[in-house]
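DM from R.C. (forwarded with permission)

"hey, sorry to bug you on a friday — could you get me a structure for this? deadline for the figure draft is monday and I only need the backbone to look sensible"
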Amino acid sequence: MKITGFLLFIVGLFAGLAIFAAAGQKDSLIFSHRKHVDEMGIECSTCHARADSSLKGTDNLLPDMETCFQCHDGDSAPNECTLCHTNPDEAEVVPRITDYSPKFPHETHLQAGEKCLTCHVGISKATDTAVRHLPKMNQCQSCHRQKEVSDPLKCQVCHTPKEDLQPITHKLEWKHAHQFAAESSPKECAQCHAQSYCESCHEGKNLTHRTHPLNYEWNHAIDAKMNKTQCISCHEDEVFCIQCHQEKHVMPPSHNRVDWANRIDGGQHKIEAEFDLESCIACHGDYKTYPTCFSCHNHSNKEE
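My reply, with the result:
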């Protein structure tokens, strides 16, 4: 009898501790968008009724308990609260979203015919509230570009001047290290920087400027021959090269030969043109229209 009583005491003690622990347990929300949206077909506006009139991203659009009680009645089904709360006696409120764009207007987007799932991709399949299905900046920019709504790279469209929008990667040495990020994830850079921003340093007659080392104008031909692809990533095709070479009267070494060109048999340039006409055209263009070529290659003294 004493053993039985002791066992009952132990069981009662653990039961009491379990009840005490449960009573002090922090509540966490159990909510499935999949069940409400996908399976039951409930419209987003049923729970997020204030979204259609919201003009600020700081508005609290999350449903409160009264909204849930429109469908769920805890009085008629006492255990129904446990469907969503781990500890109904100390039910917690889902923390509102305060770190999204303060200027984002739900009303404007909804009136324009946009659907909730266009921006909140994947939320209809979500089975918990741990992941926030908020649109990322490149998603917003992509849509704005397609619809030509506004300049997607004007930060003030969505952000206030007080917001610190500079990524943590952009430290003092970032200008020298950004190449690796730009090559590995150019779409991330394009979220904030237009092509013209890059070209202010990486294109044009800046051979002695910030991008290339000093005196690069005099030895860049080595890089141009070894890695032409890298050159044309900024200097489109060979137009930039041709313009500069023409202005400075720069010619290939072969053009300095005495027998390079003549009006009798064409000279050495005729032979090279027959083997590699594309190299000639790269600078001289069509012989029928380019001035240097036209003096010899015209209809009066050159047959088609």
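R.C.: lifesaver. The chain has a mean pLDDT of 76.
me: no worries. DSSP finds 16 helices and no strands in the chain.
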